[in-house]
């Protein structure tokens, strides 16, 4: 199993679609559907992105998400941290303290500072995180050589999808009102 | 849960104890006991280190392991790869191919080359691995400011332990022979 799972992957793929000239909020459902990824999982990811200050939600049934700041100010590391929290490369269990030679009372030279193995892991983690912080959402969007008009096409797809969902919601409301007896 | 688990931690802590002027092989049992870590887990780690060419075993009941090459030629990354195999930071599921706008037939510009998100993860992984390859077992040993004579003290502990285990094995063999009936 990889270190970063599908939540990081889906979260990154979905948040990138919030970049664009279009200023309407997009629901997590639409973001999942346009990617072909599980809506239930994406619905759990976006509150984390919101909590981390990367997106803002506009309430209401037909509401959705917008980026909270410009896409050149959000890095891959920001998104990863928002979704994964404080997940580490390595958890040091201070094995050096248990050395049998010292019967539970290790000398100072053995336990001073950070364990050398842990220190090397921390350097590796720092280097990995620095690299993830080097790429922004804007870099990701620019890396996709989409043809002119693609952004508008996406906008139309999202609008039609949102409108269809709203129509189906209204029909459901109407039907439930029609079939309700006066006593309800 | 961290990316690298206890097997990597115990493996690194144990293999470091094979460094030294002492040229007797050490069993994985002794290596586990001197660290205070689970012998059964360490017994599963050393065959992986051997398969990767980092240690060599000398057979027999009282056998054990030696480093297969000098400790400045074995890096943390070598040990991690031997234990974890080809574990990745990120598994790309090619989400971009499932974009609903293209109904299962994404255009070339969408799928050409490595996905930008995957590429950023690969750069981060490369950077992390490069850092792990920078530290050798000798660096780890040198980082521990052990007092003069410590290496000999470790040697004595390991020798006594191995001798005690051999005595107890011989007693068990003797007893089983003594209690065996002639018909066995």
Secondary structure topology:
The structure is a homodimer of 184-residue chains.
Chain A: H1 6-16, H2 28-35, H3 39-51, E1 55-58, E2 64-67, H4 76-84, H5 108-111, H6 116-132, H7 137-142, H8 150-178
Antiparallel strand pairs in A: 1-2
How would you sum up this structure in a few lines?
The structure is a homodimer of 184-residue chains. Chain A is mainly alpha-helical.
Describe this structure in words.
2 copies of one chain form a homodimer. With 184 residues, chain A is mostly helical. In chain A, 53% of the residues lie in helices and 4% in strands. Chain A has 8 helices and 2 strands, in the order H-H-H-E-E-H-H-H-H-H. The first copy, chain A, has helices at 6-16, 28-35, 39-51, 76-84, 108-111, 116-132, 137-142, 150-178, and strands spanning 55-58, 64-67. The first copy, chain A, has a two-stranded antiparallel sheet. In chain A, strand 1 and strand 2 form a beta hairpin. In chain A, helix 1 crosses helix 2 (28-35), helix 1 packs across helix 3 and helix 2 (28-35) packs across helix 3 (39-51). The radius of gyration of chain A is 24 Å and the shape is elongated. Chain A starts with 5 loop residues before the first helix and ends in a 6-residue tail after the last helix. The model of chain A has no long low-confidence stretch (mean pLDDT 90).
């Amino acid at each position: 199993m990889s270190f970063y799972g599908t939540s990081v992957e889906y979260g990154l793929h979905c948040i990138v679609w919030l970049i664009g000239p279009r200023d309407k909020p997009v629901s997590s459902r639409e973001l999942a559907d346009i990617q072909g990824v599980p809506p239930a999982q994406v619905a759990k990811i976006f509150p984390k992105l919101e909590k981390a200050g990367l997106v803002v939600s506009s309430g209401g049934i037909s509401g959705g998400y917008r980026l909270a700041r410009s896409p050149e100010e959000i890095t891959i590391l920001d998104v990863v941290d928002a979704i994964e929290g404080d997940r580490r490369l390595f958890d040091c269990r201070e094995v050096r303290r248990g050395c049998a030679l010292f019967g539970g009372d290790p000398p100072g030279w053995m336990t001073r500072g950070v364990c050398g193995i842990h220190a090397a892991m921390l350097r590796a983690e720092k280097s990995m995180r620095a690299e993830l912080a080097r790429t922004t959402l804007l870099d990701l969007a620019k890396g996709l050589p989409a043809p002119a008009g693609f952004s508008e096409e996406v906008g139309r797809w999202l609008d039609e999808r949102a409108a269809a969902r709203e129509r189906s919601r209204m029909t459901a409301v109407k039907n439930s009102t029609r079939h309700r007896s006066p006593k309800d």
